[in-house]
Amino acid sequence: MKIKFILAVVFTALAVCLLSSIQTANAQQSGAQASSYVGPVTKVIFKNGYFEKNNQGGWDEYLLNDQLRFPFRETGKNSNSVFLRNDQLGVNIELNMATGEIWAEWPGKLRHMMHKITDVRNEAPEPPPAIPPMTPVTPPIFTSPGNSSGLAAHSILYSGGELKKSGEEWEDHRKNSDAVHFYDVLSESGSEIYLYSDTSKRLYRIDVMGQQIFMAANGGAMNYYSSITGISGVSSNPPSIPTPGMLSQSEIRACLISGGRIEKAGYMGAERCTRPYADGGKACTDSSQCQGQCRTDTNSANSSSIVGVCQMDDNPFGCFAEVKNGRTEPALCVD
User: Which residues pair with 241 in a beta bridge?
Assistant: First the structure.
């Protein structure tokens, strides 16, 4: 009787261990049964590019040079993974942070490990600032050195902190925060400065002469943000002649309002307004199916029965082969 009792205890312990192992394996296989979920992952980097969460709750795939490849919607997440899908291409992606792998499947291609994850960014996106109502503001008066009609500022004090010029960028040092936010210069003149941060998705318009700062967040409208309380490092009499290859203030403003972005492109590196196409990244077999051209890379030139991708934006520069009637045209490099 004693031996039977001991055997019963041993078999019960083995059964519990086996059941636990099966449940753990099932949870780790796809993560679908996990009750918890991944924290605020915003960027997953691999050798040739990265996936980044956008402001609409979806994700975008980029090349290392920040060129957008394909948009995805988020279909779910769990303790290990984030699951994405591109409905137009029928592509499913799993970003598995537990194993450090990116899995993919699409029509004609079974589920397979596509990339190894090299880095994961878990920073939660910066919350949009509280925008004060549009009320008449009388900014404090300050005296700038010199008697010029324009000012080239290097340090601008405002009610929420200080903007400092650092090489080709500007640094935003906000009060009560140790973080430093970096901004690229879209345009700079004696009277106005346009700054943009790809991280916080903020666009600043600094009206130096009017002593005011305006801001647009996440592609929204431009509103009054803060008054300028002081300027230092000012050089007087900046050149009033437009720099060759630079867009004017009115051209930049029109471009940003229309949803475009300012970039330097081509062999000469001149500024241009690049506007995205609504169907960019869609699979195609002829340019008639796209707002722009149906293109593929130069390695596929002179191929037949090929599927291309609709042009992402109206930037004409780069190396590509146009796809017409399922066949590629001779490759071109436009610079």
Answer: none
pTM for the model stands at: 0.31
Residue type, 207: D
* CB contact burial 243-276 (16+ within 10 A = b; e otherwise): eeeebeeeebbebbeeebebeebeeeeebbbbeb
Question: Long-range pairs for 249-255 at CB < 8 Å and ≥24 separation?
Answer: 249/187, 249/189, 249/192, 252/186, 252/187, 252/194
> Quick check: 97 and 80 in contact, CB under 8 A?
yes
Decide: 154 and 170 in contact? Cβ < 8 Å: no
Which amino acid is it at 178? Answer: D
Q: Are the CB atoms for 192 and 208 separated by under 8 Å?
A: yes
Phi, psi of 145 (to 5 degrees): -65, 150
The tens digit of pLDDT for each residue in 221-268 reads 888 888 888 776 544 444 444 455 777 777 777 787 777 888 887 777
Query: Which residue, 225, 232, 210, is CA-closest to 160?
Result: 225
Contact by Cβ (8 Å): 40, 122: yes
Position 188 confidence tier, pLDDT thresholds 50, 70, 90: confident
Indicate the helix (H) or strand (E) that contains 284. Answer: strand 283-284
Give 241's Cβ-side CA count (13 Å radius): 1
Look up tokens 């920040």; give the residue: 66
